[in-house]
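Exercise 7 asks you to align residues with tokens for two separate proteins.
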Amino acid sequence: MAALPARHLADLQTSAIGFGAMVLSPGMYGEIDDHRAVAALRTALDEGVTLIDTADGYGADGHNERLVGQALRGCRDQVTIATKFGFRVPEGAPAHRFPVSYTFGELAVNAEPRYVRGYAEQSLRNLNTDVIDLYYPHFPDPEVPLEDTVGAVAELVSDGLVRHLGLSNVTADQLRKAHAVHPVTAVQVQWSMWQPVDPDLHAAARELGVGLVAWGPLGGGFLTGTVQEVAEDDFRRHLPRFEAANLKANYDRHAPLRGIASDLGLTPAQLALAWLLHQDEHVVPIPGSRTPAHIADNLAAARVRLHPDTLARIDEALSRFTPEGTGALLDH
């Protein structure tokens, strides 16, 4: 493995940029075969990534976790595996629904404590490992106190099946309540140039010493500056910001940021990731890509240093970059 700069999520050290494996399962950004998916993961590892993010709900029947397990054969002890649970509701268990801003309107989870161990055991089998390094409830269950779910994960930590507890898509208040039950290592939060982090959550994480894992750091691919349309079989068809008229307006409004990247000799993706890394020394973005060259380019952002004048120029451009369409991207 090459070496990337390191960062800390509480007491967990990882590479400054991780890898979001969600895009490697069919049905997200169009079709993909397993050979190409594993090659992408191994490129990320070869380039120095030590944090791989997946979930039991990505792909059919744990497909994404199995890909990760396959790619990590021979180097498991060099990598932090983060996975999430709650969307793969067991047969006969109630599905607890909640609204989202996608065109299909809602998602469903079940994070009742009685199911948490079963989720973890299945993920361990999928990943071909005996421990999950960082384990998240994928979304707070609208019908279960988050503290109860966290308590069930805490039991897994005590039993040695999980090393660190994470939270995903939570509020500042939820973080505080969960942290009182068991120390939280990291919170996954949607954060990018076109989706600001919730300032209250950010402040709570800093106060508690909790790291932030930024999902959607490239805006579902938009901030690469290359997405001007999406295919029929692309999940982004369900996202308002990628509807044709909105996408055209957003692409035009993104032009000043593409110009800054060009002036600096960076790709728009590198600028977006480098900017995010400069927002907090304990944030780790997890971009995903299927293309080895793009993966290498993205990871090069971990070594980019932006001058304060450049950051001010970026912030000025961002103040005029108000995207069309609601903000939620993917159920990460």
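Second protein for Exercise 7:
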Amino acid sequence: MATTALRTGLKTPKRLVAGLLAGAALTGVLAACAPARRQTSARIPIQFWTLDLAPKFNDYLNGVIARWEQQNPCYDVVWTDVPWGSVERKLLAAVFARTAPDVVNLNPLFAANLASKGGLQPLEPLLPQGAAETYLPLIWQAGQSAAADGQPQQFAIPWYLTARITLANSQLLSQAGYDAPPRSWAEVPAYAEAVKRRTGRYALFVTVVPEDSAELLESLVQMGVTLLDQRQRAAFNTPAGRRAFAFWSDLYRRGLLPREVVSQGYRRAIELYQSGELAQVGSGAEFLRSIQTNAPQVAAATRPYPPLTGANGAANVAVMTLAIPRQSKVAGPATRFALFLTDANNQARFAEQARVLPSSTGALRQVEEALADEQPSTQAEQLVRQARLLSAQTLSSARVLVPASPGVKRLQAIVYTQLQRAMLGQISSDAALAEAERQWNAYAAGRWP
């Protein structure tokens, strides 16, 4: 088994990316340890799963666990770190074996799928009054999903975040006649044309590979498209949807997007940017360090800018959450531990060590103050600091643009496949949109009669 119980020895996960599931229900066990239990040292275990955080964050997480256990002497938090590539399989196997963890690090999409099947504990009965007010409001909403009965409920507590900003090659911008890249999608066509005409390069790369990045689907939301209605039926075949489909198909047909956007994923965007063939790329602030390592000359010309948005200024954010599986017999203390792990002080420390952003409003203030006070000794570190501060400031208008709902990956596949057909000139963009609507509604009718 690749799962590693961290309190007793760890293996090396490689990425800080996503996670999965955790504890649920009973309050009777919460009442506290009975004296007899204390005398026999029979502490109640809380199984806690994370994703690819060991061994880099062993000291941090073991320290948080130790402090919580001091305040809650009846419980013993058993931390297990699971490799990203096997987490869904391991978690589902644990659920079927009725050995699911009590607290688990999840991405919103997987949490939504589990919640829709009744696999997660609704948190409203377990949360203390005012708990939601300590988190960024739009980020807190990312933990909401439809329950098995279709009604929205809070199933997850937000933990750490990454916000997309624009990293742009200032030399290519200058050659194209721009001081800064565009802030809104409406400005992109003229910008893309200027970059191509004056530099011979491309302005941006947004993949339409169905199983890859959701950036293009998110751009539709930023352009005013509502993806689904309350019955999970298609709501995107509207004037806004038609304009958005025409936007992308026209860019491609005019040769203003790399031809590979229909066949290669986000990794190709990175390759093109680092080779100096792309004017900008949307990424997290820490990606700047990779550019500095892999392409020093491009990095020297790279500057951070605010992300592309729509008319309402909404930026995208990726959220990692903590959830409580319904099987948990210690849902109350498991929820208390999740709230402790995500409180302002603990999140601020983790954000600094992991170079991520916090979901706690108090932690975000601490991170912004620390970044403002930093005095980097090199130009490279100064740029990273600037990018991180910009990312933190972006959170004031950031949200999860594509709500995590069951079937959203199917929706992305349908939309991208039909948009590809429009880009390649096989059908009109309006016809592609109508076909995407037909295919999604056929799927939705079977899943949500």
